[in-house]
Every structure is written in C-alpha cells, then in structure tokens.
Amino acid sequence: xxxxxxxxxxxxxxxxxxxxxxxxxxxxxxxxxxxxxxxxxxxxxxxxxxxxxxxxxxxxxxxxxxxxxxxxxxxxxxxxxxxxxxxxxxxxxxxxxxxxxxxxxxxxxxxxxxxxxxxxxxxxxxxxxxxxxxxxxxxxxxxxxxxxxxxxxxxxxxxxxxxxxxxxxxxxxxxxxxxxxxxxxxxxxxxxxxxxxxxxxxxxxxxxxxxxxxxxxxxxxxxxxxxxxxxxxxxxxxxxxxxxxxxxxxxxxxxxxxxxxxxxxxxxxxxxxxxxxxxxxxxxxxxxxxxxxxxxxxxxxxxxxxxxxxx
Length: 311
What we know:
Layout: E1 2-5, H1 8-12, H2 14-22, E2 27-29, H3 39-43, E3 51-54, H4 61-68, E4 74-77, H5 87-93, E5 97-99, H6 105-121, H7 123-131, E6 147-151, H8 155-164, E7 170-174, E8 190-191, E9 202-205, H9 219-223, E10 229-233, H10 242-250, E11 254-259, E12 280-281, H11 290-307
Parallel strand pairs: 1-2, 1-3, 3-4, 4-5, 6-7, 6-9, 7-8, 9-10, 10-11, 11-12
C-alpha cells in the first residue's frame, strides 16, 4: 500500500510521522513540494497510490478520475480550507474524503495579530531598514480606539476576535452564515459584508474562499472603505483582487496590506505588490507551528487509516 503526502508542513516533519506508516507496511510517496504540485505532476503520481493527504494542490475532478483508474481509495485534506478540492467529484467517484477542521484557529489568529501590530507600528519595515544599516524611526499608529473588521466567524475569525478583546478596540464582525445568537464573543452586531465597512481602520480577512467571497475585496468594495485603511489577509489569496489592491495602494486609498496568501502562490517575482515597503508579506504559513503540524498531521493520519480500514 502507498500513501501520497503533498502538504509542505507535514512533509518537513515527515520523519516524525513515518513510523506510523512503516508499522503498517505502508510506503510513503513524499515529493519535493514548495507550495503545491501542478495538476500534471499529480496526474503522473495519483493512480499509483492508495491514499492521499492533500495540501493546497489542485485536487481536481481530473486528478481524482485518474486516481480511481488505478489504486486511489481515499483522501484527506490537511487543514481547514477546502476550496482547492473537488469534493463533488470524490462523492461521485466513491472516494471517501474529509478535511481536518478546528486545527489552526489559534495559530492563524496569532499571525493576524502579529500583522496588525506590524502594520500599526511598522516593525517589519524598521527591521528591514536596520538590516541595511539604516537607523529609521517612523511614527507608528496607536491601536487603542481603532475599529477592526473581522470578516469570517469560523475558527480563525473567532480566535482572532478573542485576541482582539485585549486591545481596547472596536470590533465589527462579518459573516453571512452566523447570527449573534450563535456565538459567544461579546459581539453586539454581525453585519453582511460590506455594510459599514467604511468605519473600519483595519480589515482582517479570516473567511473561507467560496464563489460568493471570491474577489470580495475589489475596486467597488475598496471605494466604500475609508482612505488610509489597512487590510490583513490570513485566509485565502483570491478573496482579494490583487490588481485592484495594487491600484488602491498606489493612490493611497489603502495605506498598507499584510498578506500571508496570494492569488497565485508563491507570489510571482514581478508582482507590483513587492514595490510597497509599507506592506508585509508571508508565505501561506499561518498555521505552521510545531504543535499545529503535529495536531493536524495526526488527525489526517487517523482519518486516512480509518478510510483505508487500517487498524
């Protein structure tokens, strides 16, 4: 039996988990993955494996169809986001599949707070300049009293709000699927995006990528925001139409952005986003802590073994 793993955080720690597979006489297929494998790369592998622990790869209908022509019997999406996986195709092909929810809310929320403080106090810019030999002292912005909009009230959004409670800020929450009665975060109002988005000083995106949220940050919604707003995205890159974000950064409508995710990953080398020193960039790494990788990897292994009837 063979299992393919294409999730970079799990791959980097694979020696910690290898024995779980070796004990069951399972051979691991562990390609060198920076962010994702391409569809063509997956097509060349997938029919030769019995199970697949998926990262952010294009887990398309075409890939799953190729898989079932061979040995593929089950799959698990590592982590929370499932926008890259064709679950309907799996259902139609009889491939059991699930993700590992409620694994990373705290870790990603921690990064969102780090980005919030980094933008407000320009700590990342200062760090870069000191490394160049410059002694810069930009005037930062106090967080207290600011209005923070959190878009998405899943595990990450709720965890972010819990952390924001200690910062003496005004919190506005957005989620079309959650009502005030369903949460216990002390939020007095849950809005539908982009209602009252013009009141926000900082906007933190923590929602899932769906057909309705694709490019929710665009020229039209940006026009409703106050001049000088900052945007933080620790969710999914395509929530933001990057060409419109770049235009808003150029004309100073948006003061700065902190992005852990992008429309195309890794961030393309000629992206104009790289021109804005006030911005902060990550590598889609918000969930990647030792503890979170251990937690999510063990859950993924547990689910996959159950699907493959491995005791």
